[in-house]
Structures are given as structure tokens and as C-alpha cells.
Amino acid sequence: MTKIYKPTRNAEDWRDFLADPVLHWKTGYSAKSMAYAWEENAGMPPSIKQALSTAFEGDIEPLIVIPEFKVPLPGGRTQSQNDAFVFARIGEQTAVIMIEGKVEEPFGDPISKWFDPNSKGRVERLDYLAHMLGLDESPPIHLRYQLFHRTASAVIEAERFKADLAIMLVHSFSQTHKWFGDYAAFADLMKCEGAHLGKVVKSNLETGRPLYLGWVTGDPVYLTR
Predict the structure, then answer these.
(1) Who contacts 59 (Cβ-Cβ below 8 Å, separation ≥6)?
(2) d(CA 156, CA 133)
(3) Partner of 111 at 20 to 30 A CA spacing, among 12, 30, 42, 184?
């Protein structure tokens, strides 16, 4: 993974970071909606700041935002490609925030479909994710795999940057909050009491850094950009 990043000039520059800049760059879809929402709001939309303020006191300042940020994981060559990495100051603390953008798409396959007990790599990866997230046992197989590696990415990078906090936020532009039930089930496993729309909640599991999860509904205006 490269250590050198190029600043964007506008939202259209975000498409260069996509795995498929043509297929994945469409009006009404998460990649484009997220790019415009973050670029047009000085690196952090008001709804994100509002959600963070439900859990933390003090000013919230994004210090750096990197689109399509990849986090290497053991057990194979596939990395966790997060829609955005945010390094921020929250009051007197620093935070690594991993953003997962959504509109109508699910959080990937359930573990039951992704996992293969005969694959050494997948067994190693699932064990690693469970360890990073403070889980004593293998995760329930009906939960969505993507939520595990996105959240683990926040913990991994918070430790690497020596940040005070690790946060995984779903930035969903679905006005019907599609797939919130899957997020809520995951938040329940992570012992996030009171996980609701627009709220950031602390996990009561033991992780390398204090871990928080949240679901933020994006402004529908960005579905038309």
C-alpha cells in the first residue's frame, strides 16, 4: 500500500481512487454521493459532526480525509477498502474514523456465505477480526462480514496512528434507512447499548482503543449530484 497521497481538487477526483472508476461512479450511488457530501462541507458533513457530538464534547475538526483507504488484513491478499479514512481532533482527543458509504446496497455477504472452514486464509482472517474486535468466540454467521473488517480497520489504524479513539461510521444516503437492521444486529454483538439512527455509541468490548459505532443519514441532495 502506498504511503503517498494526493490531495483532491473537487469531488470528481474521488473517482480516481475507485476499483472501477466507471462502474462505481454513478449519480444516486454511494461513492459519488459521499464524495460530493464531504468535498462540499470542508471535509466533514454537518450530519457527521452532529452524530459525533452525541458521544463526545468539544470541537470536532477533520485533520485529514483519504478516500478509498485500504487496510491490509492477514489471511489473503484482499484488503479492507474503506470508503474514507478520517483522522480528526475531537475535543482534546484524536480519532481514527472509518466511513462506510451506503445507499441501497447491503454490507456484503453474511459470514455464512463468505466463510469457508476449509480455507486456511479465511479461518485465519476471521480469527484475527474476532480478536481485534474483542470477541471471545467466532462471530454469528448470519451477520454481515463487511461490518467486521470495516470496524477492525478503525481499530487497526487507531493503534497504528496512536489515536485515542477508533470509530466506524455508516454514512447512509438511504432515506428509508435500508439495512439498518443488519448494522443494529452487529452493534448489539459489539455491546453498543442504545445504537440508533444519528447516534454514536461506545462498544463495551475490550479493543486496542476505545471503539465507537454510528449510523448517520446523509443529505438526500447528494443523491442527485
Answers:
(1) 89, 90, 91
(2) 10
(3) 30
Average pLDDT over every residue of 31-36: 98
Question: Element (H or E) spanning 100, and its range?
Answer: strand 93-102
205 lies in some domain: yes
Please check the confidence at residue 1 and state whether its pLDDT lies above 70.
Answer: no
Assigned domain for 146 exists: yes
Separation of alpha carbons 24 and 92, rounded Å: 37
pTM score: 0.97
In a domain, 66, yes or no: yes
pLDDT tens for each residue of 112-155: 999 999 999 999 999 999 999 999 999 999 999 999 999 999 99
Q: Which of 40, 33, 37, 99 is nearest to 66 (CA)?
A: 99
DSSP string, 177-207: -TTHHHHHHHHHHTTBTT--BT-EEEB-S--
Instruction: Count CA within 13 A, CB hemisphere, residue 112.
Output: 4
The parent domain of residue 214 ranges over: 28-223
What is the rounded (10 degree) CA torsion for 170, 174, 179, 180?
60
Q: Which of 176, 171, 179 is nearest to 198 (CA)?
A: 171
* Count of the separate structural domains present in the chain: 1
Alpha helices in 63-133 (DSSP H): 111-114, 120-132
Cell numbers at residue 180, please? 439498518
Placement of cell 481485534 in the chain: 132
Give percent of the chain with pLDDT exceeding 70: 100
Q: Is 149 helix (H, G, I), strand (E, B) or coil?
A: helix
